[in-house]
Write a structure and sequence with these properties.
about 180 residues, about 40% helix, alpha+beta, six-stranded antiparallel beta sheet, 6 strands
Amino acid sequence: MIGEVRDYQLAMADGQVYTVPLAKEIAPGLLVYRIPDGMHPSSPHRWRIGHETSGRAVADAMTEEDAVKTAEVFGALVNWTQDMDTLRASIDADELFAKAARYYPVLPARPEYRMRGDVSRNGVYTDADVEEAAAAAKTDGLSAYDILIAMSHTVPWMGLDINQFNEAHDRIVALADAD
């Protein structure tokens, strides 16, 4: 049911299965969830669109907002309640991603979109992260605009949804006494 939140059985290519809590159905057969801690620690894209029937990943997104909006676009284009083989035979994945990419920055769920090191905390920050970023910004003499640009390209900030990002930015700017 659209909007329902439930556990999702995520099937990996190697046969391993993860139970993902709090997956939300966005369109029939498509769920959005945060990638579990410890899974793909080098991927900054911590939100995923999953295909319920197969348990496989469809796309990765930096923020929950982008994953939800993309799942809505995908859901309007294809019947995702079908099995994966039927979907693969009936859709052009490049065309599907091209349509969504016009509006939302999503990528196919592939290893080539990873970063060096553990970035699994992307989109989740602590007060200590705010204080550390503010201290660095103050030391470097960054303006509020400079802080905004730096945050949009670094973990954990680049993975925050809009309201969370703005809140973190405001806190860092205030602590850094930035203009």
